[in-house]
Amino acid sequence: MNQPGLPAPERWLLRWALRGEGSEFLLGDLLERYQDDLDRDLPAGSARRRLRREALGAVWAWWRPRAVRARLDGRE
């Protein structure tokens, strides 16, 4: 996940936290929203704050206990 334009701290967080089967969808969606914000001439700081907020929400949704159990049950 070495996407250009994604700030380094967010890139590290997402690479570390969102891994495994199905995570590509979340990563692509976050990157697309970040690029949309920049394309709409939103200041880079605001776009980055929104990206961080959405990244933390995605990480929480990915790792909360019920979601982890559902993913593990689906593999068995």
Describe what this molecule looks like in 3D.
With 76 residues, this protein is an all-alpha fold. Helix content is 76%, strand content 0%. The chain has four helices and no strands. It has helices spanning 8-17, 23-39, 44-63, 65-75. The longest helix has 20 residues, at 44-63. The protein is elongated. The chain starts with 7 loop residues before the first helix and ends with a helix. The mean pLDDT is 80.
Q: Which structural traits does this protein have?
A:
76 residues, mainly alpha, 4 helices, 0% strand
What would the average pLDDT be, to the nearest integer?
80
Main β-sheet description:
none
Order of helices and strands: HHHH
Report low-confidence residues grouped into runs of 5 or more.
none
Rg, rounded, reads 13 Å
- Which percent bin holds the helix content? over 70%
What number of structural domains do the residues give? Answer: 1
Could you tell me the strand content as a percent range?
Answer: under 5%
In short:
The protein is mainly alpha-helical. It has helices at 8-17, 23-39, 44-63, 65-75.
Secondary-structure map:
Elements: H1 8-17, H2 23-39, H3 44-63, H4 65-75
Helix pairs in contact: 1-3, 2-3
